[in-house]
Write a structure and sequence with these properties.
The structure is a single chain. With 117 residues, the chain is an all-alpha fold. Helix content is 74%, strand content 0%. The chain has 2 helices and no strands. The longest helix has 58 residues. It is rod-shaped and about 95 Å long. It starts with 17 loop residues before the first helix and ends with a helix.
Length: 117
């Protein structure tokens, strides 16, 4: 140890000076803030990105499946949906899509209530 008169940070008794303590406290606080805020946000960003990508892919896939179901109803059912009943495939497909939306919303809302309780 060097003497405090020579400009060192520690005195003869081994204690740090006040400016050094303040600097250490500041560095510790900044390191803690980074550890507790930035690192969880990085994980959350990845979670949200994969969730959004998966949701988009699922939505596009379901729309394609609903359009396919509509085309099957229009072409492969023979004369059942011809003439005055040509609107029924659209009603059936729309109702199916609405049921999927309601089931999805129900699953989302029940998941939230289970997590809170």
């Amino acid at each position: 140890m060097t003497d405090s008169r020579s400009g060192s940070l520690t005195g003869s008794s081994g204690r740090q000076s006040v400016p050094q303590l303040v600097t250490d406290a500041w560095e510790t606080a900044v390191a803690y803030a980074k550890q507790e805020t930035l690192e969880p946000l990085k994980g959350l960003t990845r979670f949200v990105a994969f969730g959004a990508g998966g949701s988009l892919a699922l939505a596009v896939g379901l729309v394609v499946l609903l359009v396919a179901a509509l085309r099957v109803l229009q072409t492969d059912t023979g004369t059942v949906f011809k003439g005055a009943h040509s609107w029924l495939p659209y009603l059936i497909t729309s109702a199916t899509g609405l049921v999927l939306v309601v089931l999805t919303a129900g699953a989302i809302l029940s998941g939230r209530s289970r997590r809170k309780g």
